[in-house]
Structure formats: C-alpha cells, structure tokens
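Example with several molecule types.
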Amino acid sequence: MDKESTLSASNFIRSIIETDVSSKKMERVITTRFPPEPNGHLHIGHAKSICLNFTTATDFGGTCNLRFDDTNPEKESSEYQDSITEDVRWLGFDWGKSTLHASDYFQQLYDFALYLIKHGKAYVDSMSADEIRMYRGTLTEIGKASPYRDRSVSENLDLFQRMATGEFEDGTHVLRAKIDMASPNINMRDPTLYRIRNASHHRTGDRWKIYPMYDYTHCVSDALEGVTHSLCTLEFEDHRPLYDWVLEQLPIAHHPRQIEFARLELNYTITSKRKLSTLVNQGDVEGWDDPRMPTIKGMRRRGYTAAALRDFCERIGVTKKQTTIDVSLLENCVRTDLDRCAPRAMSVLRPLKVIIENYPKSATDLLDAANHPKDDSFGIRKLAFTRELYIERDDFMEIPSKKFFRLAPGREVRLRYAYLITCERLEYDPKTGELITVYCTYDPKSRGGKSPDGRKIKGTIHWVSAEHAKRAQVHLYDRLFNIPNPSSSDDFRNHLNADSVEVINNALIEPGLGDAIPGAHYQFERLGYFCADENRHSAGSPVYNRTVTLRDTWLKKEVIQK
Ligand code: ATP
Ligand code: MG
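Resulting structure tokens for the full complex:
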C-alpha cells in the first residue's frame, strides 16, 4: 500500500492515543485488534473497523492483531474464518505474526475463572435462563440475588469443574461474576461468565463443554495480547465497566483501554449479518458474494477496489455520534479510484448496426486509441475500423429531441477515435417495422475524429467493429434497496429494488476485453466502470459487471421524486 493511503486525518481516538503516548502512560507499542466472530462474512461496516484499527496502529508505529472471537461453537466455522482472513488481506492489511483466536486462551480463561471463584468473585448459578432474566430486574427496578449466590467457594469450584468436564446438560448451570445486583448498569448485575455448551468447536473440538461469554473473553484476550487500545462500537459503552471490573479482579498487570466509536450506517444499505443472511437464505440475492451485497466479497466482485474502500473509511472519519452516511459517498470513492486506475475501452450494450456505404468492403483501418485520457503511461491500443459497425441504440434518434446531439437522419457525428460519419438512410425489418440498420457515409479526411475544415460536430459516440467485437454478457447493477433506510424495519425485504440487476446477453465488447483476467477493471467509455466477473468471466464467454455509473444517476432520480 502506498504511504498516502495510510496517513489518517486526526480524530478523537488518535487524540486520546496521542495524549496517552505523550503523558508516558503508554510505555508499550501501540496495539489494536480487529476481533471478528467467524459466524458470517464481513461487510462494509466491518471495513470501517478494520481500517480504523489497522491504520491507527500503523500511524503510531504499532501493530494490529487479527483475533477471531470464536466463543459460540454452534454458529461458527472455519469456512467463515478463512473467508474473513482473505477479506482483511484483500483490503490491504497485514497482521504480521500469526492469526490469533479467543479459543487460544480457553485454558487461561478457565484458570482465571477458578481464580475468581477462589477469591469469591464468581459463583455457579443453577437457576434457569428465564429465572436469571427475571431476577435481573429492569432499568427502573434493581435486581434480586439468586438463591445460589452465596454458595461456598468449594461448592462453586466443584460445580464449575464438573461443568467443564461435561457432567451437566446445556442450560443447567452458569458461572456468574459476583458484582452488584443493585447496580444501575444492568451489565454489572452479576453477568454470566461461562455457559455449558455440549458442542464441538471448529478449533478445539470436544475439549471444552463450557464456553466463556464475550464480555469476559474480550477484555482478557486484549490484556493477554498487550492490546493498548481496544476500539469497539458504541453499543459496548455500557459494557466498559464490566471490561474494567474483570481486569481489575485478575492477576494481569496490563489493562487495555476500551474506546467506543459510532458504527457505520449507510443509506440504501443493510449492515447486519443477520439481515444479510436472510437475503441469502431467501434467495433474494445469489449469495454472500452477489455484486449487490455490501459484503467485502460482494463489493469486490462488483468491482469496488480495496483502495476505494480504504479511502471511503478514511473520509467518513470516526466519531462518537451516530449518523447515516450517504452511499453516494462510497460510490464516489469508487469512481475516483477507478478513474485513476481503469483503462478505457469501448463496448456497446444495445447494438444498432451501422454500415458505412462509402467505406471499402474488405478494408480495415487500425486507429490509435488512448487507454487513459489523463495518464499516458497506460499507452495506446489499435482499434479496427470496418465498414460494418455497431453503435449504441440510444445514440440514434429518428426524430431527435431538442437536446439530442447524437446520430439522427441527415446528421453528422464523430465516432470516437475514428471518423466523422453522416446518417444517410435507414432500413427497417419488413415484418416488425423495427429499425435494423443505419446507413452512413464517412469523411475520409477526418481520420482520428478530427474535423478537416473546422466544421462543428456536437456529438461523439462510441462504437465497435462488427467483424472484430466479441459478444459478452453484461450485468448492470443498481442499489439493492429502493428506500434510504431499509434496516429501520423488519420488513426490509419489501423494499428490495426490483431493478437492482439487468442482464444483457448480447453486448458487444472490444476484442481485447474478452481476454481480460477475471477481476480486471475498465471504463467502458460513456457507460460506466465495469469489471470482468471473478466467478463467471472467461475468454470463451466474457461476463462483465457494471461497478458504478460515470455519474450519480440517483441524484437525478431523487430530484425528480421531490
Ligand atoms: P452483526 O451485528 O452484523 O452480527 P457484529 O458487529 O457482531 O456484526 P463481529 O464479527 O462481532 O460482528 O464484528 C467484528 C468487529 O467489527 C467488531 O469490533 C464490531 O464492533 C465491528 N463492526 C461490526 N459492524 C460494524 C459497523 N457497522 N461499523 C463499524 N464497526 C462494525
Ligand atoms: Mg459482535
């Protein structure tokens, strides 16, 4: 990654770390972590957390750990883990040493639990989950002590050890911290530290019958790894006293600092793993990597670049205030990066045949075309010009409207990089009455598209040679939802945009595009940015996805709606 993209703007988290560093409170190397649960695929919200954790650490000369928070064996798998690892790498980050796991600390966490029991800070509760909930109280009512709260240390040790060896059914006992049932913070009313799960874990197999809870596991894992700043989303703010309480009870010298920030919310988008998996399971999308999904895999297949996602995460910044970001900001970051890195090409999505009557039948002219208008290092390519061509159906109008400057009867336009042509006559299908061919003449003196005598040509259109172009399937993607806040209701599926994908089977592309490697990006001139589909594209049958249009077409739609 180049230096530029790793330099972050200031934010409140950096200010806290700067203060910690300058006040010498922090003698350690600045260490953060990204702690995904391997129970689904990463989405754009996770990208924010990944970028924040990695760039903050790097900017302070520190490191960021990738640690799987794998404490729910029933929901987690190594497939998810591998997919997440691949996504973080693809985003451009490196965690140097090996990948870490909360499950690496199961033994240590267990020993610490015994320590808490021995010090009277934890007890085994044998109430049911429902009873525990009832005893916990509410926001306005304090909780009640469980009848098991005052079990002796030896009884607690005995029961806890037997929980660990699998003597009990799921749900019969839990280990709870002994804090304060009257605390105004419900998280402090004797939270559960361990529960029984007679389930196999994808890494530790059948070794454990009890699994530690998130709030207990996370702070201990952070401390053991020497994490200095544990950055998490705002919903954990009320859990911070518990984070600190656990570490204060245990014989661990290092105490990381938890800092909360607002999660990323994007309009027209869903950033909840549960809701995204509903879309997959209901068949609303083709899978987690459907190019319309806000997952890293989906966005990548759509053609979003890692640099664009990093740029977006940098621009939205980090705050404590929950706001919704406009998805067009993300799309603009994608445009900006692709404008820089995508070579230009010509493709015709809805072909209309053009025959240049005064051009020799078997001739081919090889014309120079720039691969990038702003960057000469992309070089030039040769475009074959022939008597029979295809242009975009939309670039022709039989009865042109006032602001239409492209091809029309009797009118002259420029074919990009080629010649000036004039529409002479039209041919229709005798049965359907449909326009099938536009007959034109060209001006041989206009090679390269230059006007030979200074006459004004208003329209420039793209084209492909009928003889040389290759047929391709093109997927035109649009936003998956048609309302700004689909996640506000549980009926988010009712707001799916019915036109979120259009498949065009007979598009015609420049010959070179057929041989592109899957994942390659192009700007199809005048049509948008496209990429060769990573799963479906091959030289024999090219498949392109539209990543994003050249301009924000939703802006227009929204203005019209108002
Ligand atoms: P979900 O709520 O969709 O199930 P999660 O947040 O529980 O997802 P994790 O795998 O636990 O998923 O998340 C890993 C990290 O990513 C956490 O630190 C979490 O705070 C962060 N994260 C998840 N969603 C967002 C978001 N929308 N914005 C910023 N950070 C997020
Ligand atoms: Mg989580």
